[in-house]
Amino acid sequence: MPPHLILFAVAAFAWRLLTLVISARHEKALKRDGAQEYGAKNSILLTVFHVVYYVCAVVESAAGVHQPNALVSAGGIAIYIASTFVLVSVIRSLGGLWTIKIIISPQHRRVQSGLFSFVRHPNYFLNILPELIGFALALNAYWTLVIGIPLYFIPLVTRIRQEEAAMRDTFAPDL
To answer: What is the Cα–Cα distance from 157 to 69, expressed in whole angstroms?
Structure first.
């Protein structure tokens, strides 16, 4: 694997660890204030899928399964970087409500600003899916992409349904 792709993979893992720290801080504050978590088992499954996807892409790339394509790598890195900007926007819009889990507090408010005014679930459709696609393309990990994305959809669709149900229960008059 070329050194610049190793650096990219390390930076991507570091970025995700940073977001995990932010999420944990928000989760702690929310639960301290009486928030309730929904879909905990699926959140664990999503996390496992995310980590496995990253690891598979790195292993596939390091094994040299495919001939490196610099143009595909550059496009993948660009997609990945764009997805990080989306995540920053989502975190800014949600503030202390943002976590990698479904956590709803009694003081929760429905956010309809920023990207949420255009897309119902920007974190999933404009961040996570492009992030995963960009990561695999950057590393020329086509098998990870072709097999991993459909498998990732299973817990992701479950997550969206759980989140919609939790929001419906909380914001019934607003939905």
So the answer is: 32
Cα(152)–Cα(141) distance, rounded to whole angstroms?
15
**Looking at the whole model, is its pTM more than 0.85?**
yes
Higher pLDDT, 112 or 125: 125
pLDDT in tens, 117-146: 888 889 999 999 999 999 999 999 999 999
Average confidence score pLDDT of the chain: 93
Q: Show the CA angle centred on residue 127, arms to residues 158 and 24, nearest 5°.
A: 75
Pair 12, 76: CB distance under 8 Å = no
For residue 101, give both structure tokens.
């889990």
Q: What is the dihedral of CA 156, 169, 172, 100, to 10 degrees?
A: -40
Torsion sign across C-alpha atoms 127, 132, 135, 136: negative
For residues 168 and 173, what is the distance between their CA atoms, to the nearest angstrom? 8
Q: Which two three-digit tokens encode residue 105?
A: 């507090």
Contact 63, 110 (CB under 8 A): no
Q: How far apart are the first and last CA of the chain?
A: 48
